[in-house]
Amino acid sequence: MDQTEERHAEICSPNHRLHTEVTDLKHFVCNKTFSSKSYLSTQLPVLSNKKLFKCSVCSKSFSTKSNLKTHLLLHSNEKRFKCSVCNKAFSTKAYLNIHILMHSKENLFKCLVCNKSFSQKSNLNKHLLVHSNEKHFKCSVCNKSFSTKAYLNTHILLHFNENLFQCSVCNKSFSQKSTLNTHLLVHSNEKHFKCSVCNKLFSRKSTLNTHLFVHSNEKHFKCSICNKLFSQKSSLNRHLLAHSNEKHF
């Protein structure tokens, strides 16, 4: 080594190689250069524990550049993470996740008419039908219409406890329209059911069947007082009147 080289070694750090030998080695994180691979290796653990990337806004430091970029979103107006429930936007996904947890504990969709709240927009939309004039759900029994299916189902239960089909002649009520139609034959002059024995006509088949007992020896109607049998219920009823006139001592 000549005098020039010796002087160069004195001036430069012992950790640097002579510039005539190799290009300096650069650290991939901080871009700091080192003269030898061995010295660079000794510095890696030290550098890995340092937070080298500093935020220019709040001076907060980060160990990786990607973490710094994520942090910088907080200082910008850019909010790329949107809540799928209420459409509120957040600058980071972490903040969005924290926000989403709130939805599980509250009803965010409020009815502007009655202030009732719902956890889902679809439930609010169903509820709003109550306040509208649209009635899409029709009762198959009486044709009455309702704004919601729930109201229709509640209404249908009423049909099990009442006779909705009323005869316009005698006001007798029936639970089914078909039964009412059969009953209406009583009030008409149409008699379609003919007795095969005496040709007498009847408006209902049930009345004809009762009549047929007259022509048979069958007596199905028994008096509960004296056990006497009758072929017709009308005959039994007349007989019962006799018992009502009896005097019991």
TrEMBL record:
GO terms for molecular function: DNA-binding transcription repressor activity, RNA polymerase II-specific; RNA polymerase II cis-regulatory region sequence-specific DNA binding; zinc ion binding. The keyword RNA-binding does not apply. GO terms for cellular component: nucleoplasm. It comes from the Eukaryota. Its main location: nucleus. It is found in: Nucleus. SUPFAM superfamilies: beta-beta-alpha zinc fingers. Residues 53-80, 81-108, 109-136, 137-164, 165-192, 193-220, 221-248 form the C2H2-type domain. InterPro entries: Znf_C2H2_sf, Znf_C2H2_type. PANTHER family: C2H2-TYPE DOMAIN-CONTAINING PROTEIN, ZINC FINGER AND BTB DOMAIN-CONTAINING. This is C2H2-type domain-containing protein.
